[in-house]
Amino acid sequence: MLRLYVENQRHLLAALAEPEPIVVWVGNNAHDKLMLAMVARVASPATPLSVVDITGQVAFQYMGQFAVGMCPPDALLPLSPAAFSGTGRARLASQWDNWKTHGEGWRETAVDGGVVEYPSDHLDTRLLARLAESGPQPVLRLVGDVMGRYPGMVPDTFLFWRLDTLRSNGQVVFIPGTRDGRKSINVELAG
Predict the structure, then answer these.
(1) Is residue 18 over pLDDT 80?
(2) Fold of 121-189
(3) Residue 80 pLDDT
(4) Please, what is the average pLDDT of the chain?
């Protein structure tokens, strides 16, 4: 999973180094806002930047938050990009610099639509509480359960990373197992 993430980031940075026009598809969630700010900062100022904001333009949302990944391609076909202004781009680039150097780690969409920040371990208590309540279980089930109960959008990769951090800190234990005849990883509270 981590290898795929690193590979995706490498491809993204390589694409941003080219002076070809870039179209960024975003919703109103913190993750998309962060990605747009990163692109505004990392892409060459000579690179034309356009944005397609799907917020309110598609029927697919989760608790008022829109994300491109939730949409079937047909829902996106009628949407078209709009050029992104130089002042808006500069503002986002500055915001990215601030988030990158002073950010606390976990960011999500606030009620007012802004981005709110928490420490990286913000969701650890939810993972541990759910594990204490439900007992040992497959990692996939625990992550899916916390994602489904959280009032915002949480990427599974973030929760997998936090579980691995909890493992490294000795708070949980990973146990090899099988599920439906396939190898799986189960997790339980340590000690």
Answers:
(1) no
(2) Arc Repressor Mutant, subunit A (1.10.10)
(3) 95
(4) 88
